[in-house]
Design a protein that fits this description.
single chain, alpha/beta, seven-stranded mixed beta sheet, 6 helices, 26% helix, 27% strand
């Protein structure tokens, strides 16, 4: 099984670049399932029905979220639709719309996709991601799912590394998102789980995490509210291709890419 995971899509410019780039990447690497983090895909931040539709039209099989998933109330209905392959972090409050994991199926292949939010330095109250992952994996095991990919949307590098080793051998891959900067540590952990601390983002290269640099500089220097805008110009799509053994659920390889 070959899985393509695409990092946080930023605003309209990121969505446009995804549409132009991801289909070729899927074809080139003979991808079975494609997962895209879309929590910043709306103009400004958050995700809307329209930006989710663009990601799905580009070829995503599942759309994951993060701390901005609930910014746009119009997206709540989409999260609550059982037939929409959009999920939100599993460890948010039980009253939140949507679900925290899904199972993708195609041609006899089954892949669990799990979304979790970090507990350190985030602006949302969440339950413990370690315990939550245990509970979700129990449910997937009961359903006969042996292959699974976790999108761990977290700020702290140490928290991501810790969860990777905690889950090593029990999940196929843990892909870090949220910080938008790709890390150089794509690897197979000792017990067979593919891991990368942050896969990066899909959006404008000459930016601060997808935002116009001068906006971020002004906010950091003054502490005053600033309306963030997204610059135009060249973009990149940061992603990872994971190969998984269908029977064991162990990762065979992981390669990270930045497509410009």
């Amino acid at each position: 099984m070959r899985v393509l995971f695409v990092g946080d899509v930023v605003s309209e410019i990121g969505c446009d670049f995804l549409m132009r780039t991801m289909p070729q990447m899927k074809k080139k690497h003979n991808i079975d399932f494609c997962i895209v983090n879309g929590e910043n895909s709306a103009l400004g931040n958050g995700i809307t029905p329209a930006s989710c539709d663009i990601i799905l039209s580009a070829g995503a099989d599942a759309v994951t979220g993060g701390n901005h998933t609930f910014r746009r109330a119009e997206f709540y209905e989409i999260l609550d639709r059982s037939f929409t392959p959009a999920i939100r972090p599993a460890n948010v409050h039980r009253s939140a719309p949507g679900v925290g994991y899904t199972v993708l199926s195609r041609g006899g292949l089954r892949l669990g996709v799990i979304n979790l939010l970090g507990a350190s330095f985030m602006d949302m109250r969440v339950s413990d991601p370690f315990d939550c992952l245990d509970a979700v994996l129990d449910e997937l095991k009961a359903d006969g799912v042996t292959c699974s990919v976790v999108d761990f949307h977290a700020e702290a590098t140490g928290e991501k590394r810790a969860l990777g080793f905690y889950a090593d051998g029990r999940i196929s891959a843990l892909i870090g998102t949220h910080t938008h900067v790709p890390t150089a540590d794509a690897q197979i952990l000792p017990k067979g789980t593919a891991y990368i601390t942050d896969v990066g983002m899909t959006g404008p290269i000459q930016s601060v995490l997808g935002v116009e640099a001068q906006c971020v500089i002004k906010k950091l220097r003054t502490g005053l509210p600033v309306r963030f805008t997204n610059p135009s110009g060249p973009c990149s799509m940061c992603c990872a291709v994971i190969e998984i053994d269908n029977k064991s659920g162990k990762a065979v390889s992981i390669e990270s890419y930045e497509i410009k």
